[in-house]
Specification:
heterodimer; A: about 500 residues; mainly alpha; Amino acid/polyamine transporter I; 21 helices; B: about 140 residues; alpha/beta; Rossmann fold; five-stranded parallel sheet; 5 helices; 5 strands; about 50% helix
């Protein structure tokens, strides 16, 4: 064992005797939680500030308007290019001489492993728990519109990436902001790149790290019984530390192979539950449509369902956030636009397919309690829908799947841990790219970020869900504020690429 | 007219038997070019981390350079010393598929490979590259035991 792996292992072992002192440990959790909520409060309040005179957060409108503008500007590209995107992923247009380079499929799979995960399992449950089944409708719509945002940012990610003499590549919004703005003769590109990088680091620490650790702990505690979150945090941080600092690639490699398998298993299980309850699917869609336009009694009614749907879709598929542009930029292609086509499949798979399945299972399972007389959902004191055992987040999804297969919570627990871990590894890379953009390449510089990343794993597992979700959402949406601003400026570049590619494709 | 023979190599000891047989055949034919092919097993549908993707182009170049220096170049120089016309190719992909497609592209008479030394579980379940080549090739295949 090298010295890097010895440290977290020792930390983990030293943590075990402390389990006995649960009360003391819980108070550590409470302290972490209170301190965290106090520090992040103002940032969260700004990002989620409502539009004047309404309770509609401006950030949600920002995402919806952007996705709609890209959809219209590119002539509903997500529908027109859907089959072409699948052909690209299958390799129908790949140059055989590029074999051994990163394929379209691999770039998509890597980006998906960063997005498919807790957003699809816990995020949908959070949306359903607060916004009711109606939130699913808005989530699907946001997923469909978000495909155009993803198309725009990933095309730019490849077009303006840095290719270094040693053959490695770095890409992402910070590069298209600085290089793309300079090429277009626009000022402010570098400033935006710096701002984006700061938010990307916060996003990596929030949604890409703390939310994952938090929900992984919730899932484990759901199975083995309640215990202090920081213990899970220390164990998780130890493994993450071993991979990103210790360079134990085998753990990441195993995860990368198991995660797609777990994803398929999750979807298949959901499908089986839906098939067994096929007679209720019509009713479930009815609830989704009725809830979308009336709210069916949820807090905030229609607007409440809409806000929850759009928020969770953006958090799940990250369209417009800019993270995917970092992951997709490694592909080997002479046509940046082809990666844009491929990337638009990501919100479709993530949100339109997987999130919808989760939402349908939760709705059909009857975990969300309704008033038999009015048919409206019963709300608890916090304004969320009451559930059978008071479950929220990943525990709600787990309970819903358990109505079909009693053993599924165990599989889900493993899936959640692996998804959380895989997302953390992906986001540690996104955060690192932003960090090195700000502070330059170098082993010490990288180590500092990686250690901070691991510390936040512990904080994330110890804090309670509310402040963690708020901060995670706020950090990721802050990325979207800067990224989408840049996309508005650079979208004519993407249009030029699109027209040129379509003309050449038509002429064979 | 010069005949061409494809020789598939995998960098292990049985390669020597395949090369010896190819040399004997080339000498018997007279006007014959040997095309030595080393395929680096690679699937565009495998899963990788973002970091691996970022470094992929660099790794690919390193893999090709290593295959050339360790497998192809020693074999090419050994056979060229005997006055034979020899060249080498390194590609990434599926071994059986590529050996066959390169053979067709080159208009080769046949493909020569050594009997597989692969005893892995996956090769027992899905068949070895050699077995797949024999089953699917449009060209004659000689497996040297």
């Amino acid at each position: 064992m090298n010295r890097f792996t010895a440290i977290p292992a020792a930390l983990a072992l030293s943590a075990l005797p402390v389990v006995a002192s649960a009360q003391e440990a819980t108070s550590i959790d409470a302290q972490v939680n209170a301190a965290f909520a106090a520090v992040t409060g103002p940032f969260v309040s700004f990002i989620f500030a409502p539009l004047p005179g309404t309770n509609f957060p401006w950030i949600v409108l920002w995402l919806v308007v952007a996705a709609s503008i890209f959809t219209v500007y590119f002539g509903f590209i997500q529908f027109r290019a859907f089959t072409h995107s699948i052909s690209l992923v299958k390799g129908d247009y790949s140059d055989p001489n590029d074999a051994g380079e990163v394929s379209h499929f691999q770039a998509l799979a890597t980006a998906l492993s960063g997005t498919v995960g807790l957003g699809n399992i816990a995020g949908v449950a959070v949306a359903g728990g607060s916004g009711g089944p109606g939130a699913t409708f808005w989530m699907i719509l946001a997923g469909l519109l978000g495909m155009a945002s993803k198309f725009t940012e990933c095309t730019l990610g490849v077009k303006y990436r840095n290719e270094y003499p040693d053959g490695t590549v770095s890409g992402g919004p910070m590069y298209y902001m600085s290089k793309g703005f300079a090429a277009a003769g626009r000022p402010g590109g570098k400033f935006m790149a710096v701002l984006f990088s700061i938010f990307c680091i916060l996003g990596a620490l929030g949604g890409g790290n703390m939310f994952q650790a938090n929900q992984a702990h919730a899932q484990i505690a759901n199975i083995v019984g309640d215990y202090p979150g920081w213990i899970t945090g220390v164990l998780f941080a130890g493994v993450v530390f071993a991979v990103i600092v210790g360079g134990i690639k085998s753990i990441a490699k195993v995860t990368e192979k198991v995660v797609p398998f777990m994803g398929v298993l999750y979807v298949l299980t959901a499908l089986i539950i839906l098939l067994v309850n096929i007679d209720q699917i019509g009713w479930a869609f009815g609830q989704i449509f009725a809830g979308a336009f009336t709210g069916l009694g949820v807090a905030g009614g229609l607007v409440g369902a809409l806000i929850q749907g759009f928020k969770r879709a953006a958090f799940s598929n990250e369209a417009g956030v800019g993270s995917a542009a970092i992951a997709h930029s490694a592909v080997r292609t002479k046509e940046p636009i082809t990666e844009g086509f491929v990337s638009l499949l990501e919100p479709f798979i993530d949100t339109v397919v997987i999130c919808t399945m989760t939402a349908l299972v939760i709705t059909i399972s009857g975990q969300l309690l309704t008033d038999p007389e009015t048919g409206l959902y019963i709300l608890n004191e916090g304004g969320s829908i009451q559930t059978v055992d008071g479950n929220a987040g990943v525990a709600l999804t787990s309970a819903a799947f358990a109505t079909g297969f009693s053993w599924f919570p165990y599989i889900l627990a493993i899936a959640v841990i692996l998804f959380a871990f895989s997302t953390m590894i992906s986001w540690s890379y996104y955060g690192l790219k932003a960090w090195t953009y700000l502070f330059g390449e170098g082993k010490v510089v990288e180590l500092v970020f990686k250690v901070i990343f691991c510390i936040f794993v512990i904080i994330g597992a110890a804090a309670s869900l509310g402040p963690v979700i708020d901060f995670s959402d706020a950090a990721i949406f802050a990325m979207a504020v800067v990224n989408i601003s840049a996309l508005y400026v650079l979208m004519p570049v993407v249009m030029k690429e699109l027209k040129s590619y379509q003309a050449r494709l038509a002429s064979g | 007219m010069t005949s061409k023979i494809i020789v598939g190599l995998d960098g292990y000891e049985p390669d020597n038997r395949a090369l010896a047989y190819a040399r004997r055949l080339a000498e018997l034919i007279g006007s014959c070019e040997l095309v030595l092919v080393y395929v680096i097993e690679w699937s565009p549908f495998s899963f990788q981390t973002a970091e691996e993707n970022a470094e992929r182009h660099k790794r690919r170049e390193e893999e090709i350079a290593l295959a050339k220096s360790r497998v192809i170049e020693p074999a090419v120089s050994a056979l060229s010393g005997d006055g034979l016309s020899v060249r080498g190719i390194v590609r990434h992909g599926d071994v059986a598929e590529l050996l066959e497609s390169i053979g067709v592209e080159e208009g080769a008479e046949q493909i020569i490979v050594a009997r597989t030394s692969d005893k892995s579980l996956s090769s027992r379940i899905f068949g070895s590259s050699t077995a797949n080549l024999v089953m699917h090739s449009r060209l004659p295949v000689t497996v040297v035991g």
